Amino acid sequence: MKTAIKTDTNGRKKVINACTKPCPIEDGMRLIGGKWKGSILWQLRDKPVRFNDLARMLSGASKKMVDQRLKELEKEGLVLRQVESERPLAVSYQLTPFGRSALTILEQLKGWMEQHQTASYVPS
């Protein structure tokens, strides 16, 4: 049912059908909306990428931040970590089918931003 705000005879407002738990949009934003998560998923869209190469692709993110986000994405089932060699340690990351399914949303977001960017919009 749709959420609505009703006003009673005394002028008091009451929410009808209020959300009692996070809605699917909030759940989705928790998965891909964290800082650098969308960018990491986007960089992994074509092929597996080694950690250092990925960190270079995300030039504004520290290696610690990239590592933290990759661990979160792996825990959430969006990214798969593969150890390529033990000595020296070489690790690459790739999208899982679940992670790949998020690319549609990211493509739409990218298109939306390209279409609506204005001179007054300044990213933070």
UniProtKB/TrEMBL annotation:
Q: Where is the HTH hxlR-type domain?
A: 23-121
Pfam families per record? HxlR
Superkingdom assignment: Bacteria
Fetch the PROSITE patterns from UniProt: HTH_HXLR (PS51118)
Q: Which UniProt keywords apply?
A: DNA-binding, Transcription, Transcription regulation
InterPro entries, per the entry: ArsR-like_HTH, HTH_HxlR, WH-like_DNA-bd_sf, WH_DNA-bd_sf
Q: What is this protein called?
A: Helix-turn-helix transcriptional regulator
